[in-house]
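Appendix C: a fully annotated inverse folding record. The material below is reproduced so that readers can follow the format used throughout the book. The structure is listed first as tokens, followed by the designed sequence.
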């Protein structure tokens, strides 16, 4: 799969044998903000990360769902903390959903 890159960045291809920059999605974003990986690499890693399943909750208990480490909620957390912008968050959500389907 060819990854469209922002202007000035090379296109990337994801291979299953590639390693992630961190053990969690939030860690991948932190690697990007620290300059360890570029934007295209961060997006590609977040799209293909093997996310942990979200923990189900009882709707009657009044508690929010608690995501385990490595769940997709970490990407949302990075967006809410302004570590990634809306366009990047939207791209990761869209591409991850498309990759999961087919």
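Designed amino acids, in order:
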């Amino acid at each position: 799969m060819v990854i469209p890159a922002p202007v000035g960045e090379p296109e990337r291809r994801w291979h299953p044998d590639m390693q992630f920059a961190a053990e969690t999605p939030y860690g991948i974003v932190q690697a990007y903000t620290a300059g360890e990986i570029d934007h295209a690499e961060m997006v590609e890693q977040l799209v293909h990360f093997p996310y942990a399943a979200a923990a189900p909750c009882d709707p009657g208990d009044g508690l929010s769902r608690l995501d385990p480490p490595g769940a997709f909620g970490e990407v949302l957390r990075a967006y809410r903390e302004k570590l990634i912008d809306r366009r990047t968050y939207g791209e990761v959500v869209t591409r991850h959903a498309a990759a999961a389907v087919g």
